[in-house]
# Entry
Amino acid sequence: MKLSKAFLLLLPATLFGEAPNYQDHVLPILKKHCNGCHNADKKKAGLDLSSYTAAQLGSSGGEVIKIGLPDTSPLVLSIDHDEDYEPMPPKKPKIPDAEIQIIRQWIAGGLLEAKGGKSQLREITFDVSSGSSARPDVPAFPKNLPIANLPITKFRSPIYALASSPWADVIAAAGQERVNLYGSSENNGEHKFLGALPFPEGTIHDIRFSPNGKMLIVAGGKGAHSGYVVLYDVETGSRLAKIGNESDSILSADISPNHEKIAIGTTTKKLKIFSTKDGKLLHTVDKHLDWVTAVRFSPNGKYLASADRNGGIHVREADTAGIVFELVEHKVRVTSLAWRPDSKMLASGAEDGKFVLWDMKDGWATRANPAHKQKAHTRYSRRTGIMDVAFTKDGNLITIGRDRSLMWWKPDGTSAGRIQDLSAWPLQAAPRFEGNVVFTGDMSGNLIAWDLEKKKQVQNFLQASSK
# Structure
């Protein structure tokens, strides 16, 4: 393989751990390919790339470099000849991939100006105590659930929804028109089938435990027919309320920390907020451009985040539904949202295989990681996509993807571990209420418990069809 002279000169930056900086690594590439048109005297499109400060000012169309986000920085997309951007340099072949990679590493590393310079990446910290909330005196645990007369299914259903109680060793997994409950009354004991809650309303798309663990919120319905949210008592299995009357399945739902509001996402591009006291519709928001695929209240009750099939994410005031932030980073369906326990960070996962960490101080995207992204234009590209994201109580992030892998990340977004080559596409992930165990539900209907510390499966219990 023939290596370019520029690449040979930059070997220390890529092979020996030296982070690329503007003066030593990026500027020589820009001088070679870009500064003829983008310099202090000739600012084509208002862009000057000949100095560190000028490059960050951007062009007449806005910023071209996003700190820590090379995948959506217009500079990278242009030189990489992305189909949505004008290729640069114009009317010339794409610059060598090795040089593009240097620029990507420079942006991802926080735009170092020179060797030994300071990264502009935001520092991400997490105080475990800041995310704690009141623990019930007696955590809710299913007891003597009524026998449900449910039809026997020949095959196990894909687990499209999964949730873990915040205070007890109880897992709720979606089945065929039912919610299957599993749990253990012993610390780290084997999880056993506890019973099934009927959901004759149709297919289940989302399951959530209330913050105190006493209620279960189940959303779903029948396509092009009806959609509802049903609230269950976790201990007795009794139905407490039925909210919503949509003309299509409800894709996502959540309950506020004070248990006063239910939010739902619909295929009519609407976000709706209901009162749990009387089922009254409080707010209807129609600002999304496509199906609303995920809705989540922040743990402190201040915000409500919603995402759609077009890549849009909105953060609103939970009480008034007034807009706070519009978060722009994904261009495809956002599959999942998760709040860090301290409510200071929101994570989003999408079909582009990337997760983004959003700082709620100002809506800034602090990290963007192509965690489950395969190379495009190959037979493996269909395996790109994040299916679910979830935070543990200690602030670590869990992600699962179509590449059949389970990954976890430290609070600052750096990798902490990976389990790959799962037997089937994982669809949902739910951390156990304590410890290092994560549950996954997959396309084949398997519910599996994984020990992250040991990086191995600790229990594989089949989704029960009926009991």
The mean pLDDT is 89.
